[in-house]
Amino acid sequence: MCAFSYEKGKVVILEENNSSHLVHITCSKCLGSILHMIVMTPLGASAVGIITDLSAMEVAKLRKQPAVSSDDLLEFHKFIKIKNNFEKIIKII
User: Fold this and answer.
1) Which of 1, 28, 83, 89 has the largest count of CB atoms under 10 Å?
2) Given CA atoms 15, 49, 35, 75 in this order, what sign does their dihedral have?
3) Are 37 and 22 in contact (CB under 8 A)?
4) What is the pLDDT of residues 61-78, one digit of tens each?
5) Among 66, 15, 58, which Cα is nearest to 39's?
6) pTM of the complete model
């Protein structure tokens, strides 16, 4: 993120299988973190990364949680549409 070289000790492999790796990397200089999904295909490697404020342990914990369903999303949408609920949530955060 800050163009500093990453150290091996700051790279955490969270999940790997035959063709993909989920990797969390933290920069020792700026402490920014990136979550990478690296996929190997017959044509070569491909990677997608996302900047995150989550630690490797938090990502590992969240990976074990069930996915958010469309019903969950609709219920949340209905909840925040109710007057003042959105403001209450923002104040908690």
Assistant:
1) 1
2) negative
3) yes
4) 999 999 999 999 999 888
5) 15
6) 0.69
